[in-house]
Amino acid sequence: MQTLNHIGIIALNTFRESIRDKILYNIGFLAIALTLFSIVLGEWSVFDRSYVIKSTTLSVMSLSGLLISIFVGISLVQKEIQRRTVLTLLSKPISRVAFIVGKYFGLLAVVIVHLSLLTCIYYCILWVTNSGPTVSLLTAIYLIFCEMAVVIAVALLFSSFSSTILSALFTLGVYFAGHLSDQLLEQVRFASRMGELHGASSAILEKAAVVIHAVFPGLYRFNVTNYVVHGVQLPDMYLFWNSVYALGYIGVFLAVASWWFSRRDFL
Amino acid sequence: MIEIEHLHKTYRSGFTMKPKLALKDVSFNVEAGQVYGFIGPNGAGKSTTIKVLTGLLNFDSGKVLVNGISPRNVKSREYIGYSPEQPYFYDYLSGRELLRFYGKLVGLKGAELESRIGWALELLHANKDWIDRRLRSYSKGMMQRVGIAQAILSKPKLLILDEPMSGLDPMGRRDVREAIQQLNRDGVTIFYSSHLLSDVESISHKVAMIVDGKIVREGTVDEITESCGVEYHVRTRQAILEADLPRGVSLTGHPQEFICSDDVARDRLLGYCLSNGIAVEKMDHKRPSLEDILTEEIARADA
Questions:
Q1: Better-scored residue on pLDDT, A129 or A257
Q2: B22-64, pLDDT tens digit by residue?
C-alpha cells in the first residue's frame, strides 16, 4: 500500500515536471500543426481526402508520441541523477522499484494527455471536413498508446544504466527493430525459399532473424492504421491479446530497469 | 544508532574500471542521543560513508547497521533524515511545494503535513516570504535550510547531515547550529560531517576523524586533544640563553618566552628558574585544536 502511495506521488511529480518541459510543448505544437496540415494534404492528394487525413493524423500521433516517449522519457531518470535530486529522494524510505515505476506512470500520463488532445483535434477535423469520424478509429489510437507504453518502458530501461545520447540511440534501435523484425524474418525466409541464400549463410541469417523477431517487441502489431482507415475488421480479441503482449514486455522491461537501477551507486 | 565495523568500499572508474579504495576498514559506533561530528579533508571518505549509511552506495564488505537494520533494507530509511552536501532540488517547485512533496513521501498528509512544514521552517528560521518562491531563485544558504527542513519533516530518530553549514553566512551557521542542538535536546541523534572545526568542537559529543579512507582518531573532543598532549607556555622576567634551556624546552622567538613540550619539561624549566633566581611572570597551558590534529594527520598520511 505504501509502495503504491510512493509510486503515485512520484508519478504525479514526474507528470508535473514533464508538462513544464519545453520539449513537450515543441513536440505538441508540431503535432497539432501537422494534424491541421493533413487537411491541406487531403486537398492536394490524388487519393481519397478522408483517407489521407485519417492516415496522416494517425501517423502524426504515433510519431509525436514516439518523440515524447524517447526524449522526455530518457531525460527523466538522467536529469534526476545529473542534478543529484535522486540523492534526497532515494534517502527516503522508497524502493528503487517504486522510483522507476513512478517515473513510468508519470510519463505514461503525459502521453495519455497528449494523445487525448490530438484525438479531440482529430475528431474535430474529421467532423469539419466531413470525413466520416468513426468510433473504430479509436482502436488505432488505443494501439498507438500501447506502442508508446512499451517504448517508454524501453527508454526507462536504457536510461537506468546508460547516458542520455546512448539511451536515445538504443531506444530508437529497439523501435526500428520492433517495426521491421516481422518484415526481416519474412524477407529472409522468402530469399531462402527462392534459393538466393545458400547453405550455412541461409541458416545463420534465418536464425538471426528469428532471434531478432523473438527478442524485440513486435511493435508492428500496434500499427493497424491501414486496416482501420479502410474499415477492415480486426480479428476478435486482437485488442485484448495485444494489450496482454504490451503488458508482458512492459513488465519485463520495468523489472530489468528496476533491478539494474537497484544495483547502481549514486555519487 | 549507527554501527559500522570493518567497512570497505571501492570505486571503479574509467574504461579499465581501475579500482580505488575509498574506505579502508572503517569502524565506529554512534550511540542514541549523541551529536556525532565526522571530520576530514576533501576526498577522505566522509560523503562516501554517509551515502553508505543512507543506502545510496553499496559497499564491498563489513557490517553497517542503522538502528539495527542494514541500509540495504529500505526499512532502515524510515528512521533517517538526510540532507546531502550542496542539496539540489526540483527547481520548478517552490520551497513549500518541495517540502509538501517530501512530506507526502514520508507519509504525512493534510493538516499534519502543513503543521510539520511550519515547525521545520520555524526551527530553521526559514518561514519567510522566499519559501513560496521557485527554488531556482534561491541562494546557497536558502537551499541549505530547505535541505535540512526536508530532512527533519518526518521527525527522524537519526539525522544525517553532509556539510550542513557549508555556504551559510555566520547568522545561518548559528541558526543551523542552534537547530541541531534543539533537535538533539528533543532526542534526535545527529551524525554530521563538516569542515568547520570550530563548530564541530562546540556542539559534538563525539568526533571521528577520517583521513585517506581510514579513521585515525575517535572520541570526545577532550579525549582526542588530550591524547595529543598539552603544551606549556612560560614567560620569565629575565632572558635565558638557548644553550642553558633544559631538555624539552624551546624558545618561541622571544628571549623570555618558552614552550615546554610536556609537564616534565615544564617542571625542569621551573626547577631551573628556581635554582637560578629567575622569576616566572606567566604560565599557560595549551591543547592542540582539532584543526592542529587534523593537519598533523593529513601531513602524516601524505608522508
A1: A257
A2: 899 999 999 999 999 998 888 889 999 999 999 999 999 999 9
Contact assessment for residue A65 and residue A148, using Cβ atoms and an 8 Å cutoff? yes
Average pLDDT over residues B68-79: 89
Output DSSP code: residue B158: E
**Testing the interface with A: which of B105, B135, B163 to mutate, by most A Cβ within 10 A?**
B105
| Chain A residue whose CA is closest to B152 | A92
Nearest to B60 by CA among B111, B24, B113: B24
Distance CA B60, CA A234 (A): 56
Give the Cα separation of A44 and A37 in Å (integer).
11
Contact between B53 and B64 under an 8 Å Cβ cutoff? The reply is yes
Show the domain range for A157: 2-163+222-263
User: How far is the C-alpha of A133 from the C-alpha of A127, rounded, in Å?
Assistant: 6
A14 lies in some domain: yes
Taking any CB pair shorter than 8 Å as contact, residues of chain B touching chain A are: 11, 51, 54-58, 74-75, 77-78, 80, 82-84, 87-90, 92, 101-102, 104-107, 147, 150
pLDDT tens for residues A110-148? 999 888 988 888 888 888 888 777 888 889 999 999 999
pTM for this predicted structure: 0.83
Q: Is B9 in a helix, a strand, or coil?
A: strand
Closest CA to B249 of B273, B222, B226, B227: B273
For residue B165, pLDDT beyond 90: no
Among residues A105, A141, A103, the alpha carbon closest in space to that of A122 is found at: A141
User: For chain B, which domains are there?
Assistant: 2-225 (3.40.50.300), 230-286 (3.30.70)
Residue A200 within a domain: no
Reading the block at residue A68, the C-alpha cell is 515524447
